[in-house]
Amino acid sequence: MGESFHAAAGPALLAVWPISEPVSVAHYMAVGAVMFVAGVVCMAVKRNALGVLMGIELVLNGANINFVALSSPYLRGLGDPGGGLGLDGQVTALFVILLAAAEAAVALAITLNFYNNHATVDVDRGEDLKG
Amino acid sequence: MSLLPLGALVPLAAINWHTLFFLLFALLACGFAVAVVASTNVVRMALHLVFSLAATAGLFFLAGAEFVGAMQLMIYVGGTLVLLVFGVMLTARAPFVSLATPARDRLLGGVAGLGLLALLVWAVVGVEAWSLPAMGTVAEPSATPLGMALLGVRVDGGPGHGRAGYLLPFEIVSVHLLVVLVGAAYLARAKRRRTPRSLDAVASADPVESVAVTPPGAAVARPAPGGSRSALVASTVNDGGGR
Description:
The complex is a heterodimer of chains A (about 130) and B (about 240).
Chain A: H1 3-16, H2 25-45, H3 49-71, H4 87-118
Chain B: H1 5-9, H2 17-38, H3 42-62, H4 66-91, H5 94-97, H6 103-126, H7 143-150, H8 167-187, H9 199-205, H10 228-242
């Protein structure tokens, strides 16, 4: 890569992504939205019960990114009247992490039970309660 | 020429390093999250999920929530996902490693997901206060205020001052975690296989005596109902003598 290429590509890169600009809460929340949607699609589409569990984890993490971003004093804008969530957002994120651990343990136990009884982890086969 | 190729592209003084690392971690998190959805192999899905959640912990560190980021790494990546990987290993028999989804469902899910994503991003961009550029206030370490808040005392100044502590939710969550783990261990316990021989006949005759394995010959010594404990002892003794 020659110096002339660098000289030409520098402003081009700055134009594509303003890397000298500070980020805002909206950037973090967009990342959270992408993870949330990926989790929802994962829950809806996957046939493996463990894949559905992974979708749940992704959804909870997308929500956690929003909590942390709104509680961050670093990301607070100048004209932000409420001043964000403060410490409450971080405490809520901690509770979400703990409850996700509990939920994963129980869901995994149910999945193993289902596997022992039905010899499959395909959620489409769990139709014992079908009328 | 610096070692960083990026330093040659953009003058180093103009780089906002928070933005740069945000870009790195955000691309990692989103890319691996989409890879979890896109891959059909469940082992690869678990691996991609580990990377995605680790990159999320990097985002937490960047936002100034270092304690939450550390907990994300320790509890989520180190605990929950290891549990999930164990589940994958216990159930990963050949037909279940990659369960293919019908193309119609994948198309439907993709269209619905894109619509939901467009709605969410539209809502995020629409709020004006969230799009303000960061002031860059350096956050104080949050571990001490977090610990005090979980003990019911708020020591953080500013907007959170005077709000209630979190002692009661902390206790509820701790008891909840204990109950859930006991329940999970109960649900996932190994089933003991009973001996099918002659148990059913005894159980249908007298439910009290179904605990003891009684051969058909010992049923003669069964006393009158009422003293169930002595009945058990008598049948057991008779059983030992008969062998």
